[in-house]
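Quick one:
INPUT:
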């Protein structure tokens, strides 16, 4: 059954190897902001310097006898292998396979290979330098997440933020809405209990959405803000289905206004590609749109099972009790509010930059 409003409309392109629509219920790729080549290069250079400086010191101090020289050569080979493994893990980070990976420094049991009393003293500067580099990676990770983060993250602990990203991947907005206290509660419960938390705080969540988009009534997205407030008011008055449908359509409009311009085919694949490839420097923009990926999970009106989480395509083509639930109505409003506020913030920043360049 072809969908009249868009020939693609969420359907996978079986003939196109570039099709980027996972089937409903299929496990999605884990997302993360991308480390830039510069980020990886700087970290790699620090490791290389640590290895080079201390390797030279070890070699110079081991020139006393032939056995020591052989030991130094073995150390150099071991350090080179260690560096290779570290570099491979850095490349994994740079590819964006996971956020917050544990980067393990491979252990080398030098004590079993070399038996001379002052070897540990020679090796210590190297191990200390490498340890400092990787300790700084953990600090850098949180600092990058904090830098430019939306205001509803201010009261969150550093150790909550990596887990927070998992909520976004599950389709729950985390930027601009909701407030930190509700985010903390969502993080504290199992996945199956999130619906209970959302419904228990439905009124607070609507209040958060109103507050988050208050500033959007002036500017490029003022008309969108008016429709979002109609959706919020509808849900507040008990008209969940109306709020759900209007929010889903507003989200679709915002995608075409602020993410990807409309095209005749494979539009949602292009939207997904734009969101998934967002760089680390656009962290807030990226994680704002991660719930959109869940909402764009493939559904063409015939796929089984019907999506039970908020889904743009099912909202349009599968009106019924499976898709239209009180929880999905709240999430639909939240996603639209989060994306609208981010569109406003991005537009404001772009306008300011253009003004500064022409001044």
């Amino acid at each position: 059954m072809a969908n009249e409003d868009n020939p693609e409309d969420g359907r996978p392109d079986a003939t196109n190897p570039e099709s980027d629509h996972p089937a409903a219920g299929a496990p999605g790729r884990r997302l993360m902001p991308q480390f830039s080549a510069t980020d990886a290069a700087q970290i790699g250079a620090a490791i290389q310097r640590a290895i080079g400086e201390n390797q030279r010191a070890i070699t110079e101090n081991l020139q006393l006898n032939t056995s020591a020289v052989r030991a130094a050569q073995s150390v150099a080979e071991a350090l080179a292998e260690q560096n290779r493994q570290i570099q491979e893990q850095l490349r994994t980070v740079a590819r964006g396979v996971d956020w917050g990976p544990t980067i393990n420094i491979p252990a080398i049991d030098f004590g079993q290979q070399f038996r001379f009393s002052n070897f540990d003293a020679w090796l210590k500067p190297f191990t200390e330098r490498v340890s400092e580099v990787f300790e700084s990676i953990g600090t850098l990770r949180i600092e990058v997440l904090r830098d430019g983060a939306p205001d509803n993250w201010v009261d969150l602990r550093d150790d909550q933020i990596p887990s927070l990203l998992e909520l976004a991947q599950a389709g729950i907005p985390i930027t601009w809405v909701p407030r930190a206290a509700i985010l903390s509660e969502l993080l504290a419960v199992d996945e199956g209990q999130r619906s209970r938390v959302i419904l228990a705080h439905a009124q607070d969540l609507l209040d958060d959405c109103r507050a988050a988009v208050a500033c959007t009534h002036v500017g490029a997205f003022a008309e969108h803000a008016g429709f979002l407030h109609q959706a919020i008011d509808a849900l507040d008055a008990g008209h969940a289905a109306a709020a759900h449908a209007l929010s889903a359509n507003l989200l679709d409009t915002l995608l075409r206004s602020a993410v990807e311009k409309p095209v005749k085919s494979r539009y949602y694949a292009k939207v997904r590609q734009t969101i998934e490839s967002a760089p680390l420097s656009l962290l807030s923009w990226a994680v704002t749109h991660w719930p959109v990926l869940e909402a764009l999970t493939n559904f063409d009106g015939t796929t089984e099972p019907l999506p039970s989480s908020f889904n743009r395509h099912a909202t349009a083509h599968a009106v019924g009790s499976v898709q239209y639930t009180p929880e999905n109505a709240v999430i639909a409003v939240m996603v639209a509010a989060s994306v609208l506020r981010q569109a406003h913030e991005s537009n404001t920043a772009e306008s300011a930059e253009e003004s500064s360049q022409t001044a």
